[in-house]
Design brief:
alpha+beta, 6-stranded mixed β-sheet, two-stranded antiparallel ribbon, 2 helices, 8 strands
Amino acid sequence: MYSKIYSALVQHYVSGGFGLPTGYENDGFEPDVGTPYAAVYNLPADSYQDTVGEIGRDERVGIFQISIFYPVGKGRGDALAKADQILMHFKAGSFPEYSGQIVTIQSSTISPGRVADGWYQLDISAAWSATTLR
């Protein structure tokens, strides 16, 4: 279930064509110094029983986080423009799908920018939900 949810979200990200080298969870990605890049993470939260019984449905929720990194000291304009592009792609009411698993994007938002490890970082968080079969 989570593998299909994650695949649906990653496939949706890739389909956005954002033009950033991207690191995915546990893939060994190493960014090039001075070149903007992204990293994506799936942050599952609680799951809820949607129906009672051994055979039924569960409601899964979480956050799909896209962190974008730009060189420090170059302003925030390019980073904010890219964040806007990602936010529009992960807008509320989007329905990424993978192998029959539909995920609903509930909302998306951006964090305040910050400097971390020599990069200007913005985090885009897309809240998602998905119904899975038990």
